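quick one
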Amino acid sequence: MSKSTSDQTVRNPSDTPAFGSILERNLSRRAVMRGGLCALAGLGAASLAPWAARAGQAESGVTLGFASLPASMTDACVVPPGYVAQVLGAWGTPLNDQARPWDPDGGNSAQDGLNATGMHHDGMHFFALDDSASEGLLAVNHEYIDQQALHPQGPTQPDGRRPAEEVRKEINAHGVSILHIRRQQGRWEIVPNSRYNRRFTSATPMMLAGPMAGSAWVRTPFSPDGTQVRGTNNNCGNGTTPWGSYLTAEENWANCFVNRGERAAHQRRMGVSDKESRYHWESAAGDPSEQQGEFARFDITARGSDASQDWRNEINGFGYLVEIDPYDPDSVAVKRSAMGRFAHEGCSFGTPQAGKPLAFYMGDDARFEYLYRFVSDEPWDPADARRSDRLAVGAKYLDRGTLYAARFDEDGSGRWLPLTPQAVGKDGRRLGEIFGGLDGIILNSREAADQVGATPMDRPEWTATHPINGDIYLSLTNNSKRDAARGANPANPRLDNVNGHIVRWHDDSGSDAFAWDLFLFGSPAGAPADVNRSGLTELNQFASPDGLAFDPRGILWIQTDNGIDGGRKNEVARRINDQMLAVVPQALSDRQGSGPAIGPAEQAALRRFFVGPNEAEITGFAFSPDYTTIFLNVQHPSNWPAYDSDDATVAAQGKVRPRSATVVIQRVDGGKIGV
Ligand code: FEO
Ligand code: CA
Ligand code: CA
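structure w/ MU-OXO-diiron:
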């Protein structure tokens, strides 16, 4: 999330202590108790055996082999010496002959857009074809749009109504692209007209599965039985599954809708406006070309006698993780409602263990919203990793299970709190009584988490699972509203967390307990020690960590998004563009000492690998299986890429219509990235 979709309003009314105050007390305690192992006591005796075994486990031994980059603020990307960076699949790149080439004057049609890459690239994943390191399917999210860049002169609304063609063009620029890509002579390219190339947009029909499917909440004139939804929206971060499918996360979907009547509590909590929608798509309703209320559905005001007469339930089909099988071009995407309904940022799964349930971790990116875990009912069968009916495997593990919200405790322990009908809320009532069954709990995931006393967090973004030791990492991007909103400890500037930090924990899918510690604090290099707790220097200062991904070697890649507050409002953002850093973490269970895991003594461990062009966020991470190529996304640049070169490090000449794009990074010598 960033810039035009940002929503800084605090809507969480919970009085449960927020993560900032828990963290402050935890850091004070650590200083007294010394040593992360204190926290392990919180897991209880039953959980200690796996910990003891893990503490002696060898780590990957990988070391970073590049020098940290200096700051940069230009209209170009920067990579370390010996690396090259190529622009791939920039917004509007045709996937087939149905689309005309991208028009630098903004003149492409909605139909072109349906057959080309979307805008504002975000989460992504590389799915190898036949285990190849040089050919595969790149799934790329398109989070939102820049209306100014999309249309020749920006959006229009003559006589108060958006033209249908403009609205369709915007709808088609959202969603997900599946790109068949291959490497030839060291260059990656999209395979034109491949049968794998496809687009999912904000209008593509998809299935709804899990507790919401068929419920009264999701019945619409389009889907009277409540099993289908049109479109996926505002696809931010991503996840994958152990069986090789893609998960795309619906984040800031709420303000694509307007409810001019009485808004339900969950609509107010999500930020649905009673005045106007973000893009006014509903204003095109009644156009002679409109099909099945394709525009009207964005106005969810209850006007008819019931849900068959209006679009009141349309919005209830959004806010989910959506599973896509990129390998099957004929497959229909499925919204997995059992995994909760909120501003989904992304999803990572815990290390699968045969015979044990699978666990998935998910952030809800809004101020003071929660961290969630979904645990499957079905124990993991490793044979399912090799099945080709991936969405059937998805139904097995993702449609039945338990959703939890996290409570962090100051002693370094934590608890996953189940959001089940039987769970008892703060007022002594069961969640089933309050929300009316599991479908009502899912619909009101945030409110259910309030009830059980989950810990309000500082905008939880991506999660990432350490490939060797199974620790889970979470970026808490920033929260400059902390003091004003909560009245918490205004004397301590650290609590006004404008720079963000990364927390991590370890748990077991069979247990509700976890142990956590603080991995890394964002900060300007010159800040006082109680702000710059990780001792960052000019060569690795960062703020607003957002994208987070481990590669299988144990390198953690950290991406930043400082755009949220409308520009360069923190000190780091005034000194450097958004960036990607790399670090090789040691295990949480091996911790000694009282501060964050990365402190002043570990500065060589955290290195800046990439700096983006002006005003762009860096997000999304993928790699080829041989580690010789990594992919990242440059989102919402202001004046990039260059028109006459696909070299991402070349600055544009003059002022160009900007295009979000994937950047492909390789070594000149063809070696492995980062080492
Ligand atoms: Fe789409 Fe929370 O970033
Ligand atoms: Ca963000
Ligand atoms: Ca993000």
